[in-house]
Amino acid sequence: MSQAKASLAHLYRVFTKPEGKDSRLAQIEAQLSDNLADFLSGHIVTEEIPLEQIEQDFSQAQVPEQPQFVSDHAQHLLDTLVSKSVNTYSPRFVGHMTSALPYFHLSLAKLLVGLNQNLVKIETSKAFTPLERQVLGMMHRLVFAGNDGFYQQHLHSATSSLGTFCSGGTLANLNALWVARNNALPPVAGFRGISEDGLIAAMQHHNINQLAVISSARGHYSLAKAMDLLGLGKSQLHKLNCPQQTLDPQQVLQKGQQILQQGGRVMAIVGIAGTTETGHIDPLDELAEVASELNCHFHVDAAWGGATLFSERHAPLLSGIEKADSVTLDAHKQMYVPMGAGMVLFKDPLAGNAVRHHAQYILRQGSKDLGATSVEGSRNGMAMMLYASLHILGRQGYELLIDESLAKARKFAQLIKAHKDFELVTEPVLCLLTYRLCPGHLREKGRVISDKHNHQLDELNRLIQKQQREAGHSFVSRTRLSTESYPEPITVFRVVLANPLTTEQDLQAILAEQSELATKHPLWDRL
Amino acid sequence: MSQAKASLAHLYRVFTKPEGKDSRLAQIEAQLSDNLADFLSGHIVTEEIPLEQIEQDFSQAQVPEQPQFVSDHAQHLLDTLVSKSVNTYSPRFVGHMTSALPYFHLSLAKLLVGLNQNLVKIETSKAFTPLERQVLGMMHRLVFAGNDGFYQQHLHSATSSLGTFCSGGTLANLNALWVARNNALPPVAGFRGISEDGLIAAMQHHNINQLAVISSARGHYSLAKAMDLLGLGKSQLHKLNCPQQTLDPQQVLQKGQQILQQGGRVMAIVGIAGTTETGHIDPLDELAEVASELNCHFHVDAAWGGATLFSERHAPLLSGIEKADSVTLDAHKQMYVPMGAGMVLFKDPLAGNAVRHHAQYILRQGSKDLGATSVEGSRNGMAMMLYASLHILGRQGYELLIDESLAKARKFAQLIKAHKDFELVTEPVLCLLTYRLCPGHLREKGRVISDKHNHQLDELNRLIQKQQREAGHSFVSRTRLSTESYPEPITVFRVVLANPLTTEQDLQAILAEQSELATKHPLWDRL
């Protein structure tokens, strides 16, 4: 490989001249643009490569001294990075929440980098700021169904915030709980508010000894992270057991009353609209009532399930979400936008003022800078990707996608139930389900599977998931789950059927491969 | 405009077929790729359009019902979004920290979206995780200069973390202070640590009444935001005055001792390597000593200035940064990577364990998932952009860029000093400087500019900055600043000379335009 020289001419060229049509980078780009599926399946190595082996290619902890030609580096990326990446586009990789994306995002990604706006302040984002505000308004309306006057008043108001964009659900949940915490401990005589005076002064002035959040055991791990960050402590996150995968409002109320009796206060109830593990939806309507009774913030983590609202048929599954004080959505999940497009929405456009901050050269009072109520500072114009998707797919397009995904999950559940080697563990509420390998004779009527058998099944399912992943044709994920039938957690396969390219044939092939791997495995005959 | 239909066929097409070569989107992409400067200057409207007018194009708060053809939408984006964006590539837009980027990022942005990996866990990022760890290792070595053995041990270790990538400096600073807070309040008998038991229990068990951070008045606004988020309260952020633009270590020590005497503790000192407003660098070496004396965490916010370490000639400006416990860097600033590439680095690879978190289906104990010690959860593979830049530019390439920027800033300072209508307010330490319009006669030897004149000058500088921005040929930003000569804040122009395409001619043109606008202004003759 020839070495480039660190000259001003070389640098100037990199900044001002595109690679020629015949350059390696241009070739790669052309392949990628012409047929992404072929590009990925052609370049990504099928069989899993041990991580330690991949790490060898990335073990040099020293900034390279000399420049490299773009074409050389492009080939290097193809060989070391692309070849060992995960094919998230593949219709048989149904173990995670990333899926094939619409083609236009490839071109828009380029436009985004070409424009390279910084959304933290109007001065460096001009049209992107109104665009982001509009997208937030659209999503706000989808969730909260405000009227025309409401959006006319708040969409572009400097003192209102319908929500903020962020990199993902974790930051969105943090932002929501931050706002909830600060609003729960407002200024009183001698106390300037928690933002200024901190948590300890806040608890003293409000005369409370604990500030708790109630959620289900299926709550996303980001909730605990937020409790740590906000200084409340993970022990103040009460994750209630949910053998049926959803919160019991009665239990939430009891827990809340117990906290109040102990001199504490419930800061927030978090309902989930689409748990990460099984896709279940908490009873949002009833939880809203409990929150109202406990006089606390009601947050809904709809990172996964929020997009269900596009479907007239399935939106009622999320009934009650419109009563939430804040809602988390991830456009990079069921909205088919590239990674990095989370959002938090606030029903009350003034709620975010509890965390509003200013600076001299930026985020001035009265400015419409988006960074004034967000956790993040500088960030890119990812909102454009969702804006384009909302227009090009339209509500009706999203509706079709959601309806198809849910139908596919139900179809897959049928296939699993009809197969002698599998047991459906959780029914799909949205397009997620869990199941496991479990020979038919263990599931005969009236029979209870012993702990010993369950442990053997755990081991078998773990091994087969790994084998299948390593073979590289398909990918399902696995988790451990307790259910009504299995109070002790069992190991299950978890699938997410959001990829519109996944067909029934793909699903049959996944089961066939698992069944074949399992029945050949020595553990199988010992069951 | 014809309406697309929400059919499965339309959707399937969007997910599987690229737009034809003659489609509007493909045309736009081709223009963008062939000549970005022409594309931007050709499509972005020069004169500033009032924000209210831009907002009219983004005022519909309802998800469009029907799908739209990709070509139609591409044209729409061009007309409403691109045309009203900010030309961050332009060599005469020197008011912000975003600049022209190398061309290869356009193609890589496409590759990134095509691969669409999720860096939160190995399962969905495979090769990207080792790559990100390597990039963190390279930057760690640039800052802390560990030896080979150190990086062999920690680069890919599941229990070590050399740092984390994040969207930007705000999150990086938050991450650093979070780690500092949790390490300052470790578990003791009857207390499981702040992460579990929260801030109030922590303060009780450690018998302290305040947990303070000391920084300069030039500290980034994200520090106050972090204080709020972490529950410490902004009032515990002690921002010391710095008429010379840098922290006085003696004052920091005094403030720290005062806090200790009051029963508090200093959690961290934050030094700045490149302030946002003037580019000044705190005396890091001496601050490290003070931190050691106060037994507290030493964080360096090198979001802007960190890249100076690439330059052998200028790296000594940051002397002492290697003694920091944590360092913030932004690759989207002087490393010429697209927006959204921040980092925090930890000198001690075990420091991040104070915020380590796990979950069942993800971030399992012993896994190398990158999400276990970060503020963010799901996020994209932006590290690839820096990886490519480090290879294609090389240390020597970056060195040239840094050296050129600093030389350009010094040149601009000379031009300002030689011009009768301007006053240089802060000398460039890095490639930032501040200046203002101020007629020569007011600056005659021995003369002190009166408050009245300063107020008039403030008004004049504010108006001219606005006029220049609105005219759309050039852009400098403005801020208010106090200095040794001006203890009362004055309004100044602020320029950042990081764009490699900016020439001396550009700088002369900027001054000429300002001088012309000013001398024509009625305020000028009244001075």
Automatic annotation (TrEMBL), chains A, B:
GO cellular component terms attached to this protein's record: cytoplasm
Cofactor dependency: pyridoxal 5'-phosphate
SUPFAM superfamilies: PLP-dependent transferases
Cross-referenced InterPro entries: Asp_decarboxylase_pyridox, PyrdxlP-dep_de-COase, PyrdxlP-dep_Trfase, PyrdxlP-dep_Trfase_major, PyrdxlP-dep_Trfase_small
Domain of life: Bacteria
MF-aspect GO terms: carboxy-lyase activity; pyridoxal phosphate binding
Gene Ontology biological-process annotations: carboxylic acid metabolic process
Pfam family, one: Pyridoxal_deC
Residues recorded as bearing N6-(pyridoxal phosphate)lysine in the entry: 333
Keywords: Decarboxylase, Lyase, Pyridoxal phosphate
Similarity-based family: Belongs to the group II decarboxylase family.
Protein name: Glutamate decarboxylase
